[in-house]
Each structure stands twice: as structure tokens, then as C-alpha cells.
Amino acid sequence: MLRWTGWAVESSAKFRYGCAAAFPLSDHADYDELLRAVELVQPKRVLTVHGFAAEFAADLRRRGVEAWALAQENQMELRL
User: Is residue 16 part of a domain?
Assistant: First the structure.
């Protein structure tokens, strides 16, 4: 089993998590970094959950990505 976490910078991380390897990966990114990640990964769907979740999902939809905020009600958008 592998584990991706910012806590992996500690040498004891793989023992604490009981995994074969731990890789340090921050879950903090700014807006441009989030957009770049979506651009590189090209997911079929993005589900946003934290911060400006609805606004980020709406921006992704404007860019042609199916995206929805999980933390709140979503409303269909009609392009006029």
C-alpha cells in the first residue's frame, strides 16, 4: 500500500501509516495550481469540497469541465 500525504516528510510516516512507502504531497494549492492540475489530469468529472467550492466548480464548467460542489446544493445553469 502507498500513502500520499504531507506528513510523509517525517521519516516515521510509513511506519505510522503501516504502508510500504509514503510520498510527501501537499493538499494546499492556489487557484492557478488547481486549474493546472485539472488541465494536466483531464478528469471526466471534478467534485469540489472545500473553500470556494461552488465558485471553482462553476469556473471549471465555464471551461468545459463537468464539475460540481459537494458541500452545497447545485443548480443547473442555462446558457442563454
Answer: no
